[in-house]
Amino acid sequence: MSLLPVKDQMEIISRGVEEIIPEKELVSKLEENRSLTVKLGCDPSRPDLHVGHGVVLRKLRHFQDLGHHAVLVIGDFTAIIGDPSGQNKTRPQLTLEEAKSNAESYVEQAKVILDIAKLKIVYNSEWLNAMNFSDVIALASKYTVARMMERDDFTKRFESEAPISIHEFLYPLAQGMDSVHLEADVELGGTDQKFNLLVGRDLQERHGQTAQAIITTPLLEGTDGVEKMSKSYGNHIALTDSPEDMYGKTMSIPDDMIEKYFVLAADADESKMESVRQQLADDSNNPRDIKRDLAKHIVALYYSAKDAAAAEEHFDKVVVNKDIPDDMEEYSLSAEESVVDIIHSAGLVKSKGEGRRLIKQNAVKIDDKVCTDIQHTLKPGTSAVIKVGKRRFVRVTG
Question: Final residue of a domain: which of 320, 347, 380?
Fold first, then answer.
């Protein structure tokens, strides 16, 4: 297979990247004119993916498109330990069964980004579960406590006298052994994974292998523009969101996040970014219009240009003009039900708790009137439109 010239490959590989460690080693590997083994480990502690996860997944797709071997490592065994990256306390441990169940959902969602036909998927329990206690002792002997304490989150927890369990020190070692087992040429990860990725380099060298190059990608803030994108913060754009929700959520980001979202969420190339920067620098341009372009790019990336145009039309009708959409889900009442039960059963909220919270926040309307009573019910024979937030609707019929 003929690969692109190294300069052209590096232009794509470097897009939206925080660090390449060390860059000259990656260039040297590419100059060998062979397909590199590029590894990305995923933590199946949470099965819900969003466009923040999409940043590093998209980078793996770049390598696939360039003709390299992409390997997705499902960390079903390391999930038993719990990744301490960015944590101020010990993470809950999963069972192998829970991790494998989450992993199935992870892979299914990742299909919208990765070329599954050209993707090697492995589970690190295959080799880590086969290690005996002597193997673990030998592995632990390769790293000192002092080196582990160089890790920022461990240092902060130690200084604040927050507990650090011994098993947490094993996580970066176990992740590093993934690189040894796969003989990875390159490992990808978010900036919060830098320490773990460097451990992989060290362990490869100690096993007589050529050390992997490391590529870190920035962590993407959520739609609030403040916290890291996370379902826990309610500021995420899920990979499974509808085109309408994906478009609407993108339109809610702060103006100062537009450029970053174009690079990381919309995967814009340098030519597009030059145009975006020029538009943002021109005070005569309304950032809202640039954001519209961004929203369409993101929806088109995960769906299609046709879906993006339809999502924009829906946004204008429902949000800008505050109309009720013609096409919405219907929910038939066969008995008296609470509004909370209705919006949960209709899929407008993920949980009844979320439904109650939104009612308390005056974010639920019945026929355009705010519903303030979490116990409010509707009876059979009722015909009404329930609106949750700005974009979610259901038509209730008796």
Answer: 320
